[in-house]
Amino acid sequence: MITLCGFSLSNYYNKVKIVLLEKQLPFEEEVVPFTAKPASVYAASPLGKVPFVRTPQGTMCESQVICEWLEASHPETPLLPKDPFEAAKVRELTTFIELHLELVVRELYAEAFFGGQVSDETKARVRKLLDKNIPAFKQLARFAPFVAGAQFTLADAAAWATLPLLTMATKTIYGEDLLAAHGIDAKPYLKMLGERPSVQRVVADRKRDQEAAKAAAAR
Question: Angle of helix 63-73 relative to helix 154-174, nearest 10 degrees?
Answer without folding.
Answer: 160
